[in-house]
Amino acid sequence: MPKNTPSITKLRKLRVKLRKIVSRQKNKNITVILLSALVGLIVGLAAILIKQIIYAVENYAVSFFPGYLFFVLPMIGLLLVTFLNGNIFKKLVAFKGMQHVIQAIENHQSFINIRLIYAKFVTAGITIGFGGSSGMEAAIVTSGASIGSNLGKSLGLNYQLRTLLIGCGTASGISAMYNAPIGGFLFALEVILPEFTPALLIPLLIASATGKILFEMIMGENLRFDAHVEAFSYESLPYVVLIGFVGAFTAMYMIKTYGFCYKILSRLNNPYLMALIGGGLLGCLIYIFPALYGEGYVSINRLLHGQETEVWKNSIFQNLNIPFQGLLILLVLLLLRPLSTGLSLSAGGEGGYFAPSLVAGGISGYLLYKVIIAVSGPHLDLEGNTFIFLGMAATFACVMRAPVTAIFLIADTTQSYAIIVPLMIATTIAYTFKNYIDAHHPLTKDSHGPLQMEKFILNQINLRDIIDPVDTFVYTNYTLRKIIEHFSNHDHAIIPVLNSQNEVVGIIELKKVRELMKNFEQYDSIVAEQLLEKDFLQIEYAQLRNELISAPELIKRNHVLVKRKENTIGYVSKYKVLNMYNQYLNHPDRLFVK
């Protein structure tokens, strides 16, 4: 074993000292506030780093290759990412951002691999820098969550506080990356954490504000969309309703397209072949339509400033001279954007659907604006930027399943608080309509969903508090009289039944025995084999938490016997579980304060 270097030894000593300081701190609220600020600072620096990585890769790739070879850039990027994921980051490939952060909270006690702090920086930076049409928010969400988780782990914090720091890391990352402190705060609440309680308010706000302040101090204000809406006329409300439906349809098209790309490319069963073909197709799309390169925010900013023709500059559509040229080209761009994202991510690239949903939503909103103007004439008092922002919010809400975040993220990012009411209306209509469609067409549902409260509570419960020990058994040939004696001598709701080989073959419930106690004449004629129930499960103690978290309904449907090294040591008490649930749910700060 190699000896520890002096730097590693010093870090370990520092960690031990910090653990002691945290454990001795009597006021836990002060500790949480300080840690949330620390997470915000670290994640703010991470956001700066990932942004610089992507810009550096993009600038180098674009300057190195002449224009006529741009179409090979995505292929090279995807091949590089595939190589890194297959060799250096092999154990981290499966971790894909927001949904896996939620799974880590639910199924892995909020422990996240420390290497994820930087791994997704590299792979997302290469994917997007070489032209992949995805978003870098997946990398910052993963990195922020890993920073929060590992800081909590290093300081010996419990499950609740580790989860809180994961939320702080996520809030800070989105806040810094999009200059949207309210949006980052709400994103953590709505998507990552199970629900709002007062204990969450201050730490998340501090982390979100800290990340944003640090990023802005170093990088400048750096607004994503450098235009905003000053006012809104309520005479335009009918169009707001229409934008809601357009946003919902755009989101459904995007989700369908992503699924189609994954279904086709996954049939190749070879990651390098997937990267080669997917990257080749993506490169061809970019060569035909350069606006598909990277995240796509450049196209939105051009539309916001009325530079519509700049969107298709250097594309094959540049010199077309046909009726309704702008409408047709924007429609093509809208149809191709989700396809380019699907190819990028299905072919092995890294990134998220956050940015693509904003870009596609903005294009669909602007396209609707152009259609209305073409049909009704320019005399209408409508502003294209309003349609862009409303389309972004409506589409984002449906794709990311975060309607509240969508409203304030767009208002924050664009500094357009004048349209907060229409944002609410468009987002509500889009989200409600998509949920209605999903409910009537179950095959259209995706797997993404919020953290389940049942799983969150099960992670916090001490297993010993819900297990009733078993110190007695009955055999299949025992009479009802002997069974009653066993129940009278032990305080159990159920007793396991053994066969002649001492194997558990069923259980007998106390309530069933009570029903028979008045039939004295049957005490010696009824045997355990006639009374036993086979509706039970046996689970190893070491696997009990994972089994219950993966399927909380097991407790409701079955009797769960707990064994250790093939010996039954107890059973999960439904009464105790219910009592624990009630204690957590009735506590005003149930999630993070005991």
Automatic annotation (TrEMBL):
Residue span(s) of domain CBS: 466-525
Subcellular location: Membrane
Keywords assigned by UniProt, alphabetized: CBS domain, Chloride, Chloride channel, Ion channel, Ion transport, Membrane, Transmembrane, Transmembrane helix, Transport
Keyword Disulfide bond belongs to the record: no
Entry keyword annotation includes Oxidoreductase: no
Residues passing through the membrane, by range: 30-55, 67-89, 163-189, 195-215, 236-255, 275-293, 322-340, 352-375, 387-411, 417-437
Chief place of localization: membrane
PROSITE patterns on file: CBS
Alphabetical list of Pfam families matching this protein: CBS, Voltage_CLC
GO cellular component: chloride channel complex
An annotated Gene Ontology molecular function: chloride channel activity
Membrane topology designation: Multi-pass membrane protein
Listed name of the protein: Chloride channel protein
